[in-house]
Amino acid sequence: MNIDVLFRRDALMAEHARPRIVILGSGFAALTAVRELRRQRVAADIVVVSPRNEFLYLPSLIWLPSGMRRGDDLRIPLAGFFARQQARWHRGTVQQVLAGGRRVTTDDGVLEYDYLLIATGGRYLRKLPGIEHAIIPCEGITAAEAIRDRLAAMSSGTIAVGFATNPQEPGAVRGGPMFEFLFGIDTLLRRQGRRQQFRLVFFNPSKEPGQRLGRPAVSKLLAQMERRGIETRLGHKVVRFETRKVVTAGEEIEADLILFMPGLTGPAWLEASELPKSAGGFVAADETCRVRGLERVYVAGDAGSYPGPEWMAKQAHQADLQAVAAARNIAAQLRGEPGTHHFKTELACIVDGLDSGMLVYRSEARNLALPRLRAFHWLKRRFEDRYLGIYR
Q1: Report field, pTM of the whole predicted structure over 0.90
Q2: By the number of CB atoms within 10 A of the CB, which of 107, 197, 210, 307 ranks highest?
Q3: Which range of residues forms the domain containing residue 227?
Q4: What pLDDT score was predicted for residue 16?
């Protein structure tokens, strides 16, 4: 037999013998898992499944309306990162996970593997009537740019900003960015010398919005709204939206621009998949990030529902911590050891206002909210630079 044929055959057999890990998604949890698997010296084949070969840095969407960032600043191509990590990208959109988590169907073929990590993120609930009249800021660059363009076109008017949660899973909420959009718009209008022409209204079903940040943060956020002249409409459930109106169970709020973050639920493909689901529509997981009742199937980030304190956040930092635990458990199992690593529950963020920020931290042992400082704004920008440097 020709020596080249033998070499190719042996290489193919060796590749086939290596365990295969499939990771669904290319966001925070997915990419952190890739890095941690290689840090754990896992020699398996890693396949990352996502529609686009890029990473979108969602935390900086808050800076698009002011022009501090452009959309292209937040899109990071991943070809170089995947090459350095010896990971393969499979271009595709997930449609189903079947066979007890052993088979993934995408719009570009079927994948089978030894281990699966689900990290596709969640999606926003769009069940409220008239939701199309509101902009959901964290849906992506297009939404944030729409806010920028609407603000530029307005000479005066009322801007209503609010958020809600998943009633079946109250922890499935992303409120922090809405405080940032609210304060950022206020700062932007003041810089432009036209704040007096606008009315800013913050609305929320809770009388104490932002409770997952902790009581110290809630009091500071509400005090900040009062100082800035931002009206609050609290304690009434949102019923519907109209072209220029927010309708709650207690009142109607006339608005020329509505920014609203609905609660989160699991990815759409989960509905047709053979995976356990939580009451709120997420992948049900245990404290090791293993999908309940399944072997060698894990979830990290917003796609999952996990045991833990009621304040556990749906945020990038928590997704990273979950991804590290999942990757370490996969690495342990590949070594023939039990996967018993638990993820750390921790909330850490800077609620930015375009020129200053409030540092919030929460763990099982501590909860603090430091006063707004210009230094925290620059710290958030510095963190963005360092985090994205990993993937550039």
Answers
A1: yes
A2: 210
A3: 126-264
A4: 52
